[in-house]
Amino acid sequence: MKRKISLLLCLLLGLLCFTGCAKEEEPVKYDEAVIGQTVDFLIEYCNTVDDVTLEQWNQYSEFTQNYQIMTTGLQVTPESLTDAVASWKAGIDECGAYISHGDFSYEADADGVDVSMSVEYENKNAEVVFSFDKKSYLETLTVSAENSMSEILKKSGLNTLLGMGTVFAVLIFISIIISLFGFIPKIEAAFRKPKEALATPAVREEPAVIEETVPETDDLELIAVISAAIAACEGTSTDGFVVRSIRRRPSNKWKA
User: What one-character-per-residue DSSP string does 160-186 give?
Assistant: First the structure.
Protein backbone atom coordinates (compact mmCIF):
# COMPACT_ATOMS: atom_id res chain seq x y z
CA MET A 1 0.00 0.00 0.00
CA LYS A 2 2.81 2.41 0.91
CA ARG A 3 4.56 1.58 -2.35
CA LYS A 4 1.46 2.51 -4.37
CA ILE A 5 1.12 5.83 -2.53
CA SER A 6 4.78 6.69 -3.16
CA LEU A 7 4.43 5.89 -6.87
CA LEU A 8 1.36 8.09 -7.09
CA LEU A 9 3.19 10.99 -5.42
CA CYS A 10 6.12 10.61 -7.79
CA LEU A 11 3.75 10.68 -10.76
CA LEU A 12 2.09 13.86 -9.51
CA LEU A 13 5.47 15.54 -8.95
CA GLY A 14 6.52 14.59 -12.47
CA LEU A 15 3.38 16.13 -13.93
CA LEU A 16 3.94 19.33 -11.96
CA CYS A 17 7.51 19.54 -13.22
CA PHE A 18 6.43 19.10 -16.83
CA THR A 19 3.74 21.75 -16.35
CA GLY A 20 6.21 24.20 -14.88
CA CYS A 21 8.67 23.59 -17.67
CA ALA A 22 6.08 24.21 -20.40
CA LYS A 23 6.92 27.20 -22.52
CA GLU A 24 4.57 30.14 -22.65
CA GLU A 25 3.16 30.95 -26.06
CA GLU A 26 5.02 33.77 -27.71
CA PRO A 27 3.20 36.80 -29.10
CA VAL A 28 2.34 36.65 -32.77
CA LYS A 29 4.57 38.39 -35.26
CA TYR A 30 2.98 41.19 -37.25
CA ASP A 31 3.86 43.92 -39.70
CA GLU A 32 3.20 47.20 -37.97
CA ALA A 33 3.15 49.14 -41.23
CA VAL A 34 0.53 46.90 -42.83
CA ILE A 35 -1.72 46.96 -39.74
CA GLY A 36 -1.29 50.73 -39.39
CA GLN A 37 -2.28 51.21 -43.04
CA THR A 38 -5.38 49.07 -42.49
CA VAL A 39 -6.36 51.06 -39.42
CA ASP A 40 -5.93 54.40 -41.25
CA PHE A 41 -8.08 53.17 -44.11
CA LEU A 42 -10.79 51.89 -41.77
CA ILE A 43 -10.97 55.20 -39.89
CA GLU A 44 -11.24 57.13 -43.14
CA TYR A 45 -13.75 54.70 -44.69
CA CYS A 46 -15.99 54.40 -41.60
CA ASN A 47 -16.04 58.17 -41.16
CA THR A 48 -16.95 58.99 -44.78
CA VAL A 49 -19.17 56.11 -45.93
CA ASP A 50 -22.86 57.00 -46.08
CA ASP A 51 -25.93 54.84 -45.69
CA VAL A 52 -26.53 54.57 -49.46
CA THR A 53 -23.02 53.28 -50.13
CA LEU A 54 -23.27 50.89 -47.21
CA GLU A 55 -26.59 49.54 -48.50
CA GLN A 56 -25.11 49.01 -51.96
CA TRP A 57 -22.15 47.23 -50.39
CA ASN A 58 -24.47 44.87 -48.52
CA GLN A 59 -26.30 44.05 -51.77
CA TYR A 60 -23.10 42.86 -53.46
CA SER A 61 -22.42 39.14 -53.64
CA GLU A 62 -19.75 37.64 -51.42
CA PHE A 63 -17.49 37.12 -54.40
CA THR A 64 -17.74 40.80 -55.42
CA GLN A 65 -17.05 41.96 -51.87
CA ASN A 66 -13.99 39.74 -51.52
CA TYR A 67 -12.71 40.87 -54.93
CA GLN A 68 -13.01 44.57 -54.06
CA ILE A 69 -11.27 44.03 -50.72
CA MET A 70 -8.52 42.03 -52.41
CA THR A 71 -7.83 44.89 -54.83
CA THR A 72 -7.20 47.23 -51.91
CA GLY A 73 -4.78 44.84 -50.22
CA LEU A 74 -6.40 45.37 -46.82
CA GLN A 75 -6.40 42.71 -44.10
CA VAL A 76 -10.17 42.62 -43.64
CA THR A 77 -13.12 40.37 -44.50
CA PRO A 78 -16.58 41.45 -45.67
CA GLU A 79 -18.10 40.55 -42.31
CA SER A 80 -15.47 42.34 -40.23
CA LEU A 81 -15.70 45.43 -42.44
CA THR A 82 -19.49 45.60 -42.05
CA ASP A 83 -19.24 45.15 -38.27
CA ALA A 84 -16.52 47.80 -38.03
CA VAL A 85 -18.68 50.34 -39.86
CA ALA A 86 -21.65 49.57 -37.58
CA SER A 87 -19.50 50.00 -34.43
CA TRP A 88 -18.04 53.27 -35.70
CA LYS A 89 -21.52 54.64 -36.49
CA ALA A 90 -22.71 53.66 -33.01
CA GLY A 91 -19.78 55.52 -31.48
CA ILE A 92 -20.66 58.66 -33.47
CA ASP A 93 -24.27 58.42 -32.30
CA GLU A 94 -23.08 58.32 -28.69
CA CYS A 95 -20.09 60.69 -28.77
CA GLY A 96 -20.85 63.04 -31.64
CA ALA A 97 -19.00 63.78 -34.87
CA TYR A 98 -15.44 62.53 -35.32
CA ILE A 99 -12.71 65.19 -35.01
CA SER A 100 -9.29 63.53 -34.72
CA HIS A 101 -7.40 60.61 -33.20
CA GLY A 102 -4.13 60.15 -31.40
CA ASP A 103 -1.16 57.84 -31.93
CA PHE A 104 -1.57 54.09 -32.30
CA SER A 105 -0.64 51.75 -29.48
CA TYR A 106 0.14 48.13 -30.43
CA GLU A 107 -0.26 45.23 -28.02
CA ALA A 108 0.38 41.68 -29.25
CA ASP A 109 -0.28 38.35 -27.57
CA ALA A 110 -0.63 34.73 -28.63
CA ASP A 111 -4.11 35.34 -30.06
CA GLY A 112 -3.43 38.44 -32.14
CA VAL A 113 -2.79 42.18 -32.05
CA ASP A 114 -4.81 45.04 -30.55
CA VAL A 115 -4.36 48.55 -31.89
CA SER A 116 -5.77 51.20 -29.54
CA MET A 117 -5.94 54.98 -29.79
CA SER A 118 -7.68 57.94 -28.19
CA VAL A 119 -10.28 59.52 -30.46
CA GLU A 120 -11.70 62.99 -30.04
CA TYR A 121 -15.37 63.37 -30.87
CA GLU A 122 -17.62 66.40 -30.79
CA ASN A 123 -19.27 65.69 -27.46
CA LYS A 124 -16.83 63.41 -25.64
CA ASN A 125 -13.63 61.45 -26.13
CA ALA A 126 -13.46 57.70 -26.55
CA GLU A 127 -10.97 54.86 -26.77
CA VAL A 128 -11.11 52.90 -30.03
CA VAL A 129 -9.56 49.44 -30.26
CA PHE A 130 -8.99 47.48 -33.50
CA SER A 131 -8.47 43.76 -32.83
CA PHE A 132 -6.62 41.61 -35.39
CA ASP A 133 -6.19 37.82 -35.41
CA LYS A 134 -2.99 35.79 -35.79
CA LYS A 135 -2.96 36.41 -39.54
CA SER A 136 -3.35 40.18 -39.05
CA TYR A 137 -6.96 40.18 -40.29
CA LEU A 138 -9.41 42.52 -38.61
CA GLU A 139 -11.78 40.84 -36.19
CA THR A 140 -13.59 43.57 -34.24
CA LEU A 141 -13.71 47.32 -33.69
CA THR A 142 -14.69 48.59 -30.23
CA VAL A 143 -15.58 52.18 -29.28
CA SER A 144 -15.57 52.89 -25.53
CA ALA A 145 -16.79 56.35 -24.60
CA GLU A 146 -15.04 58.15 -21.74
CA ASN A 147 -17.89 59.27 -19.53
CA SER A 148 -17.52 61.99 -16.93
CA MET A 149 -18.09 61.36 -13.25
CA SER A 150 -21.53 62.98 -13.39
CA GLU A 151 -22.55 60.75 -16.31
CA ILE A 152 -21.29 57.66 -14.52
CA LEU A 153 -23.21 58.59 -11.37
CA LYS A 154 -26.31 59.35 -13.43
CA LYS A 155 -26.20 55.99 -15.15
CA SER A 156 -25.52 54.23 -11.86
CA GLY A 157 -28.47 56.00 -10.25
CA LEU A 158 -30.77 55.12 -13.13
CA ASN A 159 -29.67 51.48 -12.99
CA THR A 160 -30.22 51.42 -9.23
CA LEU A 161 -33.67 52.98 -9.51
CA LEU A 162 -34.60 50.61 -12.29
CA GLY A 163 -33.48 47.58 -10.31
CA MET A 164 -35.16 48.66 -7.07
CA GLY A 165 -38.30 49.71 -8.92
CA THR A 166 -38.53 46.30 -10.54
CA VAL A 167 -38.08 44.56 -7.19
CA PHE A 168 -40.73 46.68 -5.45
CA ALA A 169 -43.14 46.26 -8.37
CA VAL A 170 -42.80 42.47 -8.12
CA LEU A 171 -43.27 42.57 -4.33
CA ILE A 172 -46.40 44.72 -4.66
CA PHE A 173 -47.79 42.35 -7.29
CA ILE A 174 -47.13 39.36 -5.01
CA SER A 175 -48.79 41.10 -2.04
CA ILE A 176 -51.87 41.86 -4.16
CA ILE A 177 -52.11 38.22 -5.18
CA ILE A 178 -51.78 37.10 -1.55
CA SER A 179 -54.49 39.55 -0.44
CA LEU A 180 -56.87 38.06 -3.02
CA PHE A 181 -56.60 34.62 -1.41
CA GLY A 182 -59.20 35.68 1.19
CA PHE A 183 -61.87 35.96 -1.50
CA ILE A 184 -61.34 32.41 -2.77
CA PRO A 185 -63.48 30.69 -0.04
CA LYS A 186 -66.28 33.20 -0.62
CA ILE A 187 -66.23 32.58 -4.35
CA GLU A 188 -66.26 28.82 -3.82
CA ALA A 189 -69.19 29.13 -1.41
CA ALA A 190 -71.10 31.26 -3.89
CA PHE A 191 -70.67 28.65 -6.62
CA ARG A 192 -71.42 25.78 -4.23
CA LYS A 193 -74.79 27.06 -2.95
CA PRO A 194 -76.71 26.74 -6.25
CA LYS A 195 -75.41 23.19 -6.71
CA GLU A 196 -76.48 22.18 -3.20
CA ALA A 197 -79.91 23.73 -3.77
CA LEU A 198 -80.35 21.64 -6.93
CA ALA A 199 -79.08 18.45 -5.32
CA THR A 200 -81.26 18.63 -2.13
CA PRO A 201 -84.97 17.73 -2.79
CA ALA A 202 -87.64 19.91 -1.28
CA VAL A 203 -89.13 18.51 1.90
CA ARG A 204 -92.92 18.29 1.74
CA GLU A 205 -94.63 19.63 4.79
CA GLU A 206 -97.51 17.54 6.02
CA PRO A 207 -100.53 19.38 7.29
CA ALA A 208 -100.83 19.47 11.00
CA VAL A 209 -103.51 17.33 12.52
CA ILE A 210 -105.86 19.39 14.50
CA GLU A 211 -107.35 17.50 17.39
CA GLU A 212 -110.65 18.67 18.57
CA THR A 213 -111.02 18.50 22.26
CA VAL A 214 -114.43 18.56 23.64
CA PRO A 215 -114.51 20.36 26.88
CA GLU A 216 -115.69 18.39 29.85
CA THR A 217 -119.28 18.87 30.83
CA ASP A 218 -120.79 18.61 34.19
CA ASP A 219 -124.34 18.34 32.94
CA LEU A 220 -125.99 16.24 35.68
CA GLU A 221 -128.90 15.18 33.56
CA LEU A 222 -126.61 13.81 30.86
CA ILE A 223 -124.61 11.95 33.49
CA ALA A 224 -127.74 10.49 34.99
CA VAL A 225 -129.05 9.30 31.61
CA ILE A 226 -125.74 7.67 30.70
CA SER A 227 -125.49 6.03 34.12
CA ALA A 228 -129.02 4.67 33.85
CA ALA A 229 -128.33 3.28 30.39
CA ILE A 230 -125.19 1.49 31.56
CA ALA A 231 -126.98 0.09 34.66
CA ALA A 232 -129.83 -1.20 32.49
CA CYS A 233 -127.41 -2.96 30.18
CA GLU A 234 -125.46 -4.50 33.03
CA GLY A 235 -128.56 -5.29 35.14
CA THR A 236 -127.24 -3.46 38.16
CA SER A 237 -127.98 -0.25 39.98
CA THR A 238 -126.28 3.10 39.45
CA ASP A 239 -124.88 3.20 42.98
CA GLY A 240 -121.56 1.64 41.99
CA PHE A 241 -120.85 4.06 39.11
CA VAL A 242 -118.76 7.16 39.41
CA VAL A 243 -118.62 9.38 36.31
CA ARG A 244 -115.50 11.52 36.42
CA SER A 245 -115.53 13.06 32.93
CA ILE A 246 -117.32 12.86 29.62
CA ARG A 247 -115.46 13.18 26.27
CA ARG A 248 -116.86 13.12 22.79
CA ARG A 249 -115.53 10.36 20.60
CA PRO A 250 -114.78 11.03 16.99
CA SER A 251 -117.67 10.27 14.75
CA ASN A 252 -117.53 6.75 13.28
CA LYS A 253 -119.24 5.83 10.09
CA TRP A 254 -120.48 2.26 10.11
CA LYS A 255 -120.20 0.40 6.91
CA ALA A 256 -123.11 -1.71 5.90
Answer: HHHHHHHHHHHHHHHHHHHHGGGGHHH
